[in-house]
Specification:
Strand content: 25-35%
Low-confidence stretches: none
Helix content: 25-40%
Bound molecules: flavin-adenine dinucleotide
Structural class: alpha/beta
Number of strands: 21
Shape: globular
Mean pLDDT: 94
Distance between the termini: 33 Å
Number of helices: 13
Largest sheet: 9 strands, mixed
Length: about 425
């Protein structure tokens, strides 16, 4: 086997899924991650603290015409869903320019179709992964709600709903009474909703990552708590990866370091514009409110997910780079906004029942990940840049990475995800 030993950089959902698929193909696998499986040892990796949505319906790119119009208002509003730390603007400017260009109306249908290919199998591929690692109980298929207080906000999202329908997704519109039946915990002033029955969720993303890591190690894979700092190549092939601890020879490489991937890809010879869309979660233990169904606030643009024993409020986008300290006010904002959805949430909650988290969404300007062979190194696969939908599409991306290493045709058309498209 020419790629007998494959190194995987990054132990988020993408890297772990790739590692398990590679192991199943009979390869030796070593995963490198300074933060351990799922980024559990540090706050940054996105796979542990995300909202857990397995949303085949998330085909609306982040940059789209309606959204771009709302950006100036969001930036002026300290409680808005988007924040930019102005000091980061010079570094982010080239990415933002591409982001604005990616949001042109004529580009949206193709982006939505590409996302649909990747996301339609979200629940099925998570079920398969979870079953393989003894975590079937973590995956649920109860659908998801997008809810709106005002008719104006409901109408403003009609374009998104139309885009979903154009991709064959069934989107039901619910009036106030039907909404109450689907989700009784919402306040009576939440009068408009759309429901997508095919969606699912994972009730413990970090727990799923941990199970995948344990299964990997039990079956002979290695996970080293080390940071990749250099990639050695010879004759257009990766031959080793260096960490502070030493040199790891490799016959193949999967680069799945999430928001940290761009400098490593550049070392290979692949330039990819990547930005961290920082997001927060705030979790309530023993929450007084526990919705049956995951909910997206149409006005606040944040998700509410019933987790195992906890209520997770997750969302907001902050552009501030990988190194800036967290602004926990943005996490607290989620709780304030959630109170306006759920009258059952008390005004004061003891601090011991609250936890906060910051994670880095690895985002490309066109909302499509980079999945494909490196243009410079024939035995290296790039698998990063999944933005808002990487948890849902992680298991499928991992399988595709193993297919590419094996030279098997991937199950979906990878042209929209080509590393060379920028
Ligand atoms: C608030 C929030 C909510 C979200 N909600 C959802 C959701 O509901 N559904 C969904 O599908 N997606 C969601 N996402 C997005 C999703 O979490 C990410 O797209 C996904 O987790 C990315 O996975 P990954 O494996 O590519 O990256 P990560 O999970 O970030 O993993 C990358 C890993 O690489 C490691 N690494 C970095 N540098 C190096 C190096 N030099 N050497 C070795 N390792 C390195 C890091 O430590 C990290 O563990 C959300 C994200 C956020 C922030």
């Amino acid at each position: 086997m020419p790629e007998a030993h494959v190194l995987v950089i990054g132990a988020g959902i993408v890297g772990l899924s790739a590692a398990l698929a590679l192991l199943r193909d009979g390869r030796r696998v070593t995963v490198l991650d300074p933060a351990g499986p799922g980024g559990i040892l540090s706050a940054g990796g996105a796979s542990a603290g995300n909202a857990g949505w397995l949303s085949g319906a998330s085909v609306v790119p982040t940059a789209y015409p309606g959204m771009l119009k709302a950006v100036p208002g969001w930036l002026m509003d300290p409680l808005g869903p988007l924040a930019l730390r102005w000091r980061h603007l010079p570094a982010a400017a080239p990415w933002l320019w591409r982001f604005v260009r990616a949001g042109r109306a004529e580009r949206i249908p193709a982006q939505a179709a590409a996302l649909r290919q990747l996301l339609a199998p979200s629940v099925a591929s998570h079920l398969a992964l979870a079953e393989a690692v003894g975590g079937r109980y973590l995956i649920h298929r109860q659908g998801a709600l997008w809810v709106y207080r005002t008719e104006a906000a409901f109408r403003a999202d009609a374009g998104g709903a139309a885009l979903r329908r154009a991709q064959g997704i069934t989107v039901e519109e619910l009036g106030a009474d039907e909404l109450r039946q689907v989700e009784p915990s919402l306040g009576r002033d939440i009068r408009h909703a759309r429901f997508v029955a095919e969606n699912g969720h994972c009730s413990d993303p970090a727990g799923l990552c941990r199970r995948v890591a344990e299964t990997l190690v039990r079956n002979g894979g290695r996970i080293l708590v080390e940071r990749a700092v250099a990639i050695e190549q010879c004759d257009g092939r990766v031959v080793a990866v260096q960490t502070a601890e030493g040199r790891h020879p490799a016959d193949g490489l999967v680069l799945a370091a999430g928001a940290w991937s761009a400098p490593l890809a550049a070392m290979l010879g692949d330039a990819v514009p990547l930005e961290s869309e920082r997001g927060y979660h705030l979790e309530l233990v023993q929450s007084e409110v526990m919705p049956r169904v995951p909910i997206m606030s149409g006005e606040g643009k944040f998700a509410v997910t019933p987790m195992d024993g906890r209520l997770r409020l997750a969302g907001t986008v902050e552009l501030a780079g990988l190194a800036a300290p967290p602004d926990w006010r943005r996490a607290d904002l989620l709780l304030r906004q959630a109170r306006s959805l759920f009258p059952g949430l008390p005004t004061t909650i003891p601090e011991q029942r609250i936890s906060r988290w910051l994670g880095h969404r690895p985002s490309t300007p066109d909302s499509l990940p980079v999945i494909g062979r490196s243009r410079a190194a024939a035995n290296a696969i790039l698998a990063f840049g999944h933005g808002h939908v990487g948890f849902a599409s992680g298991p499928l991306t991992g399988r595709i990475a193993a297919d590419l290493i094996a030279g098997r045709p991937p199950p979906i058309d990878l042209a929209p995800f080509a590393p060379g498209r920028f």
